[in-house]
Amino acid sequence: MEYKGYIGRVEFDDEADILCGEVINIRDVITFQATSVKDIHKAFRESVDDYIEFCESRNAVPDKPLEAAVAEP
User: Fold this and answer.
1) Where are the domains of the chain?
2) CB neighbours of 56 closer than 8 A, spacing ≥ 6?
3) Residue 46's closest CA among 24, 30, 27?
4) pLDDT band at residue 66 using 50, 70 and 90 as cut-offs
5) Considering the domain 2-71, what is its CATH architecture?
6) CB neighbours of 16 closer than 8 A, spacing ≥ 6?
7) Structure-derived torsion over alpha carbons of residues 67, 63, 53, 24, reported in degrees to the nearest 10
8) Is the pLDDT of residue 73 over 90?
9) What would the 3-class secondary structure string for 3-62 be?
10) Could you tell me whether strands 31-34 and 18-23 are parallel, antiparallel, or unpaired per DSSP bridges?
11) What average pLDDT score do residues 49-72 get?
12) Average pLDDT in the 57-71 region?
């Protein structure tokens, strides 16, 4: 999955019967979970947006996705 340059990876947790995901192309940790494919996409986008808003509220610069960071001069 990709949103705003952030890439999410999803795995199925058989014991908990949920989809668990994490953003894989930044140093900070962003996780998300849901019980359906439709909802995991939504949870991913919401987690990225929440992360960006959290950083801005603390006057911090969010980690840029690695591909974007490499492409910038």
Assistant:
1) 2-71
2) 62
3) 30
4) confident
5) 2-Layer Sandwich (3.30)
6) none
7) 60
8) no
9) ECCEEEEEEEECCCCEEEEEECCCCCCCEEEECCHHHHHHHHHHHHHHHHHHHHHCCCCC
10) antiparallel
11) 83
12) 79
